[in-house]
Amino acid sequence: MTTRLANGGTAVQRFWTGDYYNEGNSSNRDSIFDKLKEECGVFGVFGHPEAANLSFFGLHALQHRGEESCGICTSDDGTFHYHRGMGLVKEVFDRDRLEGLKGSHAIGHVRYSTSGASQLGNAQPLVFKYRGGDLAICTNGNLVNEPGIRKELEESGSIFQTTSDTEVIAHLIARSSKDLVEAVRDAFQRLIGGYAFLIMTKDKVIAACDPHGLRPLVMGRLGDAYIFASESCALETTGAEFVRDVEPGELLVLDKDGLHETRFAPIERRAICAMEYIYFARPDSDIYGLNLHSARKRMGQVLAQEAFVDADIVTGVPDSSISAAIGYAEQTGIPYELGLIKNKYTGRTFIQPSQELREKGVKMKLSAVRKVVEGKRVVMIDDSIVRGTTSLRIVNMLREAGALEVHVRITSPPFMNPCYYGIDTPNPADLIASSKTVEEIRQAINADSLFFLSEQGLIDSVGAHPNEKNGGLCLACFNNDYPTAVRFEEAKLTSCSCD
Amino acid sequence: MTTRLANGGTAVQRFWTGDYYNEGNSSNRDSIFDKLKEECGVFGVFGHPEAANLSFFGLHALQHRGEESCGICTSDDGTFHYHRGMGLVKEVFDRDRLEGLKGSHAIGHVRYSTSGASQLGNAQPLVFKYRGGDLAICTNGNLVNEPGIRKELEESGSIFQTTSDTEVIAHLIARSSKDLVEAVRDAFQRLIGGYAFLIMTKDKVIAACDPHGLRPLVMGRLGDAYIFASESCALETTGAEFVRDVEPGELLVLDKDGLHETRFAPIERRAICAMEYIYFARPDSDIYGLNLHSARKRMGQVLAQEAFVDADIVTGVPDSSISAAIGYAEQTGIPYELGLIKNKYTGRTFIQPSQELREKGVKMKLSAVRKVVEGKRVVMIDDSIVRGTTSLRIVNMLREAGALEVHVRITSPPFMNPCYYGIDTPNPADLIASSKTVEEIRQAINADSLFFLSEQGLIDSVGAHPNEKNGGLCLACFNNDYPTAVRFEEAKLTSCSCD
Amino acid sequence: MTTRLANGGTAVQRFWTGDYYNEGNSSNRDSIFDKLKEECGVFGVFGHPEAANLSFFGLHALQHRGEESCGICTSDDGTFHYHRGMGLVKEVFDRDRLEGLKGSHAIGHVRYSTSGASQLGNAQPLVFKYRGGDLAICTNGNLVNEPGIRKELEESGSIFQTTSDTEVIAHLIARSSKDLVEAVRDAFQRLIGGYAFLIMTKDKVIAACDPHGLRPLVMGRLGDAYIFASESCALETTGAEFVRDVEPGELLVLDKDGLHETRFAPIERRAICAMEYIYFARPDSDIYGLNLHSARKRMGQVLAQEAFVDADIVTGVPDSSISAAIGYAEQTGIPYELGLIKNKYTGRTFIQPSQELREKGVKMKLSAVRKVVEGKRVVMIDDSIVRGTTSLRIVNMLREAGALEVHVRITSPPFMNPCYYGIDTPNPADLIASSKTVEEIRQAINADSLFFLSEQGLIDSVGAHPNEKNGGLCLACFNNDYPTAVRFEEAKLTSCSCD
Amino acid sequence: MTTRLANGGTAVQRFWTGDYYNEGNSSNRDSIFDKLKEECGVFGVFGHPEAANLSFFGLHALQHRGEESCGICTSDDGTFHYHRGMGLVKEVFDRDRLEGLKGSHAIGHVRYSTSGASQLGNAQPLVFKYRGGDLAICTNGNLVNEPGIRKELEESGSIFQTTSDTEVIAHLIARSSKDLVEAVRDAFQRLIGGYAFLIMTKDKVIAACDPHGLRPLVMGRLGDAYIFASESCALETTGAEFVRDVEPGELLVLDKDGLHETRFAPIERRAICAMEYIYFARPDSDIYGLNLHSARKRMGQVLAQEAFVDADIVTGVPDSSISAAIGYAEQTGIPYELGLIKNKYTGRTFIQPSQELREKGVKMKLSAVRKVVEGKRVVMIDDSIVRGTTSLRIVNMLREAGALEVHVRITSPPFMNPCYYGIDTPNPADLIASSKTVEEIRQAINADSLFFLSEQGLIDSVGAHPNEKNGGLCLACFNNDYPTAVRFEEAKLTSCSCD
């Protein structure tokens, strides 16, 4: 038995035993972890006649948070309509699909891309029927104590059709004898983890954020309608006005009487995921009032102060490190150049160069620009080093293109610990920083020098709450300081970020 | 609220309020009922290294029982793999999909085609996790008392993601504290209806048939492996040897120790669905030892004895009534001719003739063959009359092609009552035979004469159990004699045959 | 160099060197010739506001004549619109495609399915620009002297983008200095072969048939519009009234002044392809006033007179031999039974049983019905024997299902010679009848007895022109009497029927 | 009659009368011209066992030059294999397709995206048969005198199946009585225009560039193989080593004896297309030794010198103007910021915001980043202004996001004249700079100030041949100085760049 918890295996074991089911051929799973995976994104509308269309455009703006699958559920005077599918938002929905999704309330979801197993069953929103009627739920994040709750539910006779946290929440709500909002409140009080939830019934949309605010969620207005989104860029895209971030522990309920601002928990220590600032969120989004492009540029500037090196050019690994590289260049006066370029047409393709062609230099995605780097001392800015294999490949690419020196500067501290809150991280043993010193990593990636941004530098760059611990950030992946209890005997590692 | 039972609406109400959800544009729902809909088909393998491939070919042979969606789940030393999709078996599965479905046990399903709403969520097998591990279930048929059980389960906190009976069974099994086989036995003892079930766990395949044997299920052997299928044609297709029909009330369990032949109920009055003989099953299948082509040919012969008419040619409405027409022709000596022809490339297409073109005679599916019918007195054999609209259209088509007289002969008695056991029937008020006499129907369909096969004629043609009531057939749709209790205040009409 | 004529290779050599180009993986080419291939079909409309829609339905009715690719070209006050694609008519065209095909004149085409090479480039109608404007052409049939004309054209500087005869015609027309109709007439006078052509310019539709009438073409009326079609079933489908067959050597021109009935050649000896009667045309079509179902039934009756055998049942190989089997049964009094059944969902699928499964009896397409044939002496009716491999397989299938004896009756004489007029035939060496006696064939296909319909029997059954040689039929594949010169040093064997 | 030249209409007329044919619904043609269209790209391989795979990766690297359709033709010891389709390289080709393209020589093509009409018939390489055997041709660019040659060819009986220049070339080659290389040479000597050609026969690959070098073409080596590509980035991607640019008027022939460097014309005045530097080519490509990113950065720097403005931030319109914006920022010391962001998942999608949603601010592709531009004086860098509509939209977007001032700086001179050499330009009347002064344009696009890079500034930034007129650039679209004769009575405007 390899499926989740079925044999009482530990979380880590489960994590490595594979997918619950398999569709098609799985590619080499290792390749997943060359790059941290985007999490999911959620989007919701209450009270707009074009709820499904707005969700389409909102989810399209959040597409970077999940390319695997997506879905939208609408409530049309109590009748639910939904459609979910594998693929990009623009692929899964066409005009006919959207026209079928009638109603003025909607919640939608984009899900990140796992390699190999395409799991339509896990596409969200999940839609349930229970005693109280219809219920649609979607989420971004991860519950640490989901395995325990799931086991308890199974022991009292529950069945599960997905591996998603969402289904656990639905069971908790359905088993409560209280009214919906109270049942939701009770359910959230049982959850430990980092998450943003959108829940829809026939006449309500409910939004909630975990007590540490680990995962982002914002609220906006579009005329009389309310909009929720994982990132503010989706408000901008849909023409909605930003109102505010959903606060940790809040439970916002929209019904025919309007917005009810309640909480299911007090704000505990604020701990918004630092990786949202470093890598995940779109540069045109704001989190707690801070624009992401500006934040990343500042990381580059602070990194330049912490780790100056005399060089001829600065280049960033596209797309995520361009802002930081420009900041580094501005701070140092070293020209910013396009030393690396990404083919924008890459994306899902099943044709890869053969081993032989790859060895001869065939590249699909990223190339070094010979004319730019040849004979130059290069500062290469990247956002993080996970296994080190990608960094090594890029450094070597620059050297083969004629770079004299390659100085690697990373806009985050060494990534050493797994995430339990929604970021898909490899086996801790494979995190290069968990077993190697910076100098050893430098050698492993063949760099002339290597510096990581300091924790304080990161906090100074992006800390929205300077008076809080870690500036209000979760830095657990860097410093092992998890904001919640993480009891390993039952905690669930994030094997896929929305489970 | 329009969804199932949520407002305590009666079954009939629920039936007419539409689909739980909607994907794409729904075509005119009325058009569903021009023809009775095929039910679903199930196929199972225990102990064959090519379990998924066999399921593919077996389901392909059962495709006529359901064209909407299909799925296969395999158990590979306890790891479940599955794939489900909308479309024909050959469309949903390709080589890669099948190769991913490793394992030596499998169950699979084809689901019939509803018009408009394409419900991937209802595709089977459904796969669950519960305390005991993984569970896959698929079914053909319908449970009369599902709404009551569902309501009871909802009241104790269950959630439902589909409208399928299968999910109800899974809940009943999961809530039992007994071992799997006992839990399954207990669950079946609660069910009222007509059904054939296949259930798979990591190391077992279980097959069961309702206590009246309303829905067909056969068992075969392929070397050491066991095969189950809704119809024997799927055994033939996969090269398996027919062993026997699964008997009413039986619970057959296959595990590492082989076949365990048990029952969860005694055989009550046998009542195999007469429509399987009349229309649904493939002509090359056998049910209780009787070949379907031969049975239909005999219906035609008996009908000829009961309702001879002097005519020039006999023609059958393709494809289902060809065998009966040949029987009628043989019995009467009137030549069998191809007076009606069906375009074999029809099938799912979204382009239909415009109203104007249709009025001018553009036909997509069925045409009368002018040279054959012109100036002739035609006996037209069909299997049933549901609303009468299709019969009228065909009679007129024959007349427009020059038929002098059209004598309609139906190989079943008048269809007057809804089915509760898996056949999608229209609103009883729309069954033409429920409100009109045979003479009135004759006028409505513009026939020169009209005769229905008598109940006794039907029993004589196909009754495999002559000593049982109705020859062991369920004739409820003709004579209102339902083999089970059908309490209308909670009974579930078959809105789609596998729910 | 393996491409056509480039090395001056003989026709037969060229025929075996493969396709001009290749798309995707080619399956085993031998499998092509288990069954003679359908030819192509053409459909045309002059003067109807829904010309494209009518073409859609007309081509759908002609789909059996070609499943590989299809296309429609319309003329909209002189602007041409066209769309061509691989696949069935209902797959290639959707509502948007059809709406884009504006105009009141149209010609369309369905092309038969080659195995392996899918040749979009050869899809028709081909559309050209030349000095005179736009020209669209489609054809059914084959030109014997195309290689010579092509070579001559190449030598004077022509280039070819397809391997289609159609392109040769276009060159001939374009090179003429006469007006279009004269140019077309001159072109046809150069052609030797069997063909039906539809040609469209901005304001004309031209239809022509070879001087022997080898390939069928009919004309109909729909209100004021004129319709052309390869078979009359397409008239029936579109609601058009049959007017007459296009006569051998005729050149019918439709323009704003109406129909101009001219000829480019006198009727030479009439020689309509016998295989149209035996196998290709739809049973509801009429050719020269003779309905195809009736013709085939009569073949079965004549065959019964020529080759009676005492047996228990008669069965036909579906679908093409059902009519003949019924005729045989009627004539002999032996009951017609469904001893063989074809899975109607087969069609293009890329999944085939593995060798191992096939040996164990897994069948995709055709099965014997055990209950029907077990213990019986079976007369099996088929339309032709090409290589003998299929016949052997079917005979064995019947024996494995328990048939005591299998008596094969073929509704055509032995197929011994290649076709040069549009039927895809294998290498003559592989035609079993070209090297074996009937008795040897009987042994090769494992039959208890074997009879072929005599030439006279065939003529008696279908000869529409009893006073002409061979009853006005082309029987060259049976008796080597080709109606045209077939100079082997340059003749083109039909490698694909529309070239 | 609206098709090309059929009525002897002038080029300009023809240009505006629409497409030769139409597939599906055409969107508003005006929208084409909001942005200059990329031209096409070519790629060739001589002498590598993985010729098709290399072409796949090479064309993928050239995808930005054409997203509409693509194709590859290989020569496998003289047998041609090819596949062409609509869509991106990664969509049109899969592993099976590539495996079918056997052979060690290949040429391939990507074609730019027209709006509405998807013209598979025009996909390249075009493949012909002629007296000399097989011929495959693909091209980038446009022939000015194609209409005259086409007319002449039509008058002597040629037929055309496409609207592509390529077909004209093929006719010229086929009509020559000389050997292939001489025939090709003669053909090129007749051509006037800007073009790069790749021609393949069974055993040769020929590359040629027009006598002014208007369109780029480079040669590389990969082991013993030769590679040709429109841009050097495709060499880098395939691991090939850059050898040299193909010179104006060169005719390079590769055969079994290796490379033959010949010419069909002397170098006339060099005039490489300036828009390649400004906009089309990938930033990691080099043209005549100049890296494009560096060139664009220098344009930004020169523009800063020519048109400094005091501001708070510099931002570029993504993606093409990022390099220039960074140059402008570096030169002025004004920080570069991400004031505009493009959704990277856009691309072909058929769902657009409704008018109502668009008015309310729903954006699909480009957004201004409020936090970055709010309260700021913004310098917005763009590469060109065509109609002005896009610029107005972006300026307004920045203002709505709170920009205090928007200063537009364009890295090219005013675009005033149509291109005859391969760039799809709108009706000259719609080129805003052809009828308005800079001040009027400034008002039309609602900018606070507007400056265009001067011609001299452009030449200084990118002129690879400083001693030649215009630095060896074609600046005709800016200064009306066309390097070739452009006789309007028959010249062909570039309606689609590869015709």
Report on this structure:
- The structure is a homotetramer of 499-residue chains.
- The first copy, chain A, is of the alpha+beta class.
- Chain A has 2 domains: 258 residues, Glutamine Phosphoribosylpyrophosphate, subunit 1, domain 1 (4-Layer Sandwich), CATH 3.60.20; 150 residues, 3-Layer(aba) Sandwich (Rossmann fold).
- The first copy, chain A, is 28% helix and 24% strand.
- In chain A, the strands form 6 sheets. Chain A has a 7-stranded antiparallel beta sheet with strand order 3-2-4-1-10-9-11. A 6-stranded antiparallel beta sheet of chain A has the order 5-6-7-8-12-13, with helices on one face. A 4-stranded parallel beta sheet of chain A has the order 17-20-21-22, sandwiched between helices.
- In chain A, α14 links the parallel β20 and β21.
- The longest helix of chain A has 15 residues.
- Chains A and D meet through α2, α8, β16, α10 and α11 of A and α2, α8, β16, α10 and α11 of D.
**Percent in helix of chain A:** 25-40%
Main beta sheet strand tally, sense and closure of chain A: 7 strands, antiparallel
- Label the CATH architecture of the largest domain in chain A: 4-Layer Sandwich
Distance between the termini of chain A: 20 Å
| Count of helical regions of chain A | 18
Oligomer: homotetramer
Rg calc of chain A = 23 Å
Strand order of the main beta sheet of chain A, please?
A: 3-2-4-1-10-9-11
User: Low-confidence stretches of chain A at least 5 residues in length (pLDDT < 50)?
Assistant: 1-34, 114-118, 495-499
Q: Mean pLDDT of chain A, nearest integer?
A: 86
Structural class estimated from helices and strands of chain A: alpha+beta
Q: What count of domains describes the coordinates of chain A?
A: 2
Task: Considering residues with a beta carbon less than 8 A from a beta carbon on another chain, report the largest interface and each chain's count.
Answer: A-D, 64 and 63 residues
Number of strands of chain A: 23
* CATH homologous superfamily title of the largest domain in chain A: Aminohydrolase, N-terminal nucleophile (Ntn) domain
Strand content range of chain A: 15-25%
Query: What is the name of the CATH topology of the largest domain in chain A?
Result: Glutamine Phosphoribosylpyrophosphate, subunit 1, domain 1
Question: What is the CATH class name of the largest domain in chain A?
Answer: Alpha Beta
